[in-house]
TrEMBL record:
<dbReference type="InterPro" id="IPR036428">
    <property type="entry name" value="PCD_sf"/>
</dbReference>
<dbReference type="InterPro" id="IPR001533">
    <property type="entry name" value="Pterin_deHydtase"/>
</dbReference>
<keyword id="KW-0456">Lyase</keyword>
<dbReference type="GO" id="GO:0008124">
    <property type="term" value="F:4-alpha-hydroxytetrahydrobiopterin dehydratase activity"/>
</dbReference>
<comment type="similarity">
    <text>Belongs to the pterin-4-alpha-carbinolamine dehydratase family.</text>
</comment>
<protein>
    <recommendedName>
        <fullName>Putative pterin-4-alpha-carbinolamine dehydratase</fullName>
        <ecNumber>4.2.1.96</ecNumber>
    </recommendedName>
</protein>
<dbReference type="GO" id="GO:0006729">
    <property type="term" value="P:tetrahydrobiopterin biosynthetic process"/>
</dbReference>
<dbReference type="Pfam" id="PF01329">
    <property type="entry name" value="Pterin_4a"/>
</dbReference>
Length: 101
């Protein structure tokens, strides 16, 4: 899958609340009430990653989880990354979690 153009990335970000472009990746930080809630979210993200066969970089800092999506084989953001973010945002995860930072 080819890298997206800056215009394609901007169009995708317009539909992905809280997601931002950071160099050659899409990133978003989520904040939870407890570490346990953060870990439950990470486990759900792992299930989505397995289904999509596309794995985000995940950083956990107590009640905060930072996701970074990029397609290493292409050296940047592709449709795999925007699709992952879209599916995450449209899932029960997105509707049931606390406010993002």
């Amino acid at each position: 899958m080819a890298k997206l153009s800056p215009e394609e990335i901007d169009a995708a970000l317009a539909e992905l609340p809280g997601w931002q472009r950071e160099e050659e990746a899409l990133v978003k930080e989520f904040r939870f009430k407890t570490f346990r809630e953060a870990m439950a979210f990470v486990n759900e993200v792992a299930d989505l990653a397995r289904r999509l066969r596309h794995h985000p970089e995940i950083v956990i800092n107590y009640n905060r989880v930072r996701l970074r999506l990029t397609t290493h084989d292409e050296g940047g953001i592709t449709g795999k990354d925007t699709e992952f973010a879209r599916q995450l945002e449209s899932s029960e995860l997105a509707r049931g979690r606390p406010q993002e930072q």
